[in-house]
Amino acid sequence: MATYRELLAQVKTEIDEVGAAEARERHGAALFVDVREREEWEEGAVPGAIHVPRGQLESRIEGLVPDRSTEIVLYCAGGSRSAFAAKALGELGYEHVSSLTGGFTDWKRNGFQVETPQSLTPDQRRRYSRHLLIPEVGEAGQERLLASRALLIGAGGLGSPASLYLAAAGVGTLGIVDADVVDDSNLQRQIVHSTDSLGEPKVLSAKRTLEALNPDVEVKAYEERLTSENVERILADGWDVIVDGADNFPTRYLVNDASVWHGIPVVHGSIYRFEGQVTVFKPGSAGSVAGRAGDARPRAGGPCYRCLFPTPPPPELAPSCAEGGVLGVLPGIVGSLQANEALKLLLGIGESLQGRLLLLDALGTTVDEVAVQRDPSCPVCGEHPTITEYVDYVEFCQGVQR
Ligand SMILES: [Zn+2]
User: Which of 15, 28, 112, 393 has the smallest C-beta neighbourhood within 10 Å, fewest atoms?
Assistant: First the structure.
């Protein structure tokens, strides 16, 4: 049986190590992963490093770093824990991993830059304690949620439960786009509003409810209908995920085109009477989670909304809730599923509904799932896109209806 010393010596022959000076040269190009315990991390860390305690490394790294060709520099306090960690990542298929010899201690001794990481306050530790207990979320995941930005299209039936759960979960910035005011016929399902807020703009009513639920959350209210004219301005505020709870087709097509061009994943939900649908559109992405702008040209990946619905349905086949009615709890279920998908995307955990359309029947209480695929000839996300800028979406939807 090997002693610890022998085991460590053996592991060190099997991994790549890098000294502090060389590590510093790679700083910026390589991802630094701090595998120490939380108390050590809080006292100071390499700037830009992510924190994954050694005990959670194997279970969390795929979610945090999906691309196994990423150059990674692992460090601990002295270079031993990170050596074992480097071996583990190598076994998980990570190709460019090295361990910092001498660890953070040596980094500091060299006078290299150190920062004190943000960490949760005692209040936040209590508020999010049930998240912190889940290894897939934990402290790093919660910090990630607090730094995340989700844009909700609509503060209605779907936007209500979705925004409530995202706010409760501590998603730090929520944008809400809606031009309507609260009407008494909304309250049968739009639970972010209340009788007190009748006549008030929905975005302001929602903002008040959500910020009261969780003061960690900042709500950016866009009291306007999403249009070709304002979509770029709203997206320029920077969003990690869009939760689409729109109640009309022009907005859905507009959200789709904008999200494809900006590389932002969309969690789609729709409802009618007792039937709900949920899916995730994340075209052009195999793994990256927080797809901010800069990744505009889609590659192979999941379908977009237009892949599924190249043309809007004729109006007689697509009545709105106002025309066709909806069981009040149904948007509660569908919107909660949307929040679930959004949280997974933000955390980089689990399996998203990308490529799968969930069909929910509340009357029979059944759930079906159909596989949906990207259409290579899709006019927006296909190989040779024919729609490359915003169109008149109202006209587009009416044109097809004629
Ligand atoms: Zn498409």
Answer: 28
